Amino acid sequence: MKLPPDAFPIFTPEEHRGYRGDRNQLRPSIAADTLFLVGSRRAFELESDQLRDLAEDGPARIGEAWGRHYCAEIGLGPAFLVHGKSELPGGMLHVVLCEDS
């Protein structure tokens, strides 16, 4: 899958920051073994490099050798509260793309 080069404009973290309590953040949810990322357009634009890399390069990379996986660290924003049992650093989502076994 190839996204057009201008699918996500590039924004710096400074441009991304909004008002106090800013809701321009990605929020993860899992349903039926599927990861959903929900958020504003600006939230997706800030993480566009990681998302694009995962979608475009990930499938080819895991196909290069059996058992290989491909990871991405996606920022969720400063207001994301980490679940008490999570080992993730606050505000980060570690996504692993691998073959279904």
Structural topology:
Layout: H1 13-16, E1 27-31, E2 34-38, H2 41-46, H3 48-63, E3 69-75, E4 92-98
Antiparallel strand pairs: 1-2, 3-4
Q: What key phrases describe this protein's structure?
A:
101 residues; two-stranded antiparallel sheet; 24% strand; globular
Describe this structure in words.
The strands form two sheets. Strands 1-2 form a two-stranded antiparallel ribbon. It has a two-stranded antiparallel ribbon with strand order 3-4. It has one domain (13-98). It contains three helices and four strands. The chain is globular and about 40 Å long. The chain has helices spanning 13-16, 41-46, 48-63, and strands at residues 27-31, 34-38, 69-75, 92-98. With 101 residues, the chain is of the alpha+beta class. The mean pLDDT is 73.
- Poorly predicted runs of 5 or more residues: none
Roughly what is the average pLDDT, rounded to an integer? 73
How would you sum up the global shape? globular
Strand order of the largest sheet: 1-2
Largest sheet: 2 strands, antiparallel
Radius of gyration from CA coordinates: 15 Å
Q: Count of DSSP helices?
A: 3
Please state the structural category.
Answer: alpha+beta
**H/E topology pattern:** HEEHHEE
Strand content: 15-25%
Count of strand segments? 4
Distance between the termini: 22 Å
Helix content: 25-40%
Counted up, domains total: 1
Q: Quick summary of this structure?
A:
With 101 residues, this protein is of the alpha+beta class. The protein is 26% helix and 24% strand.
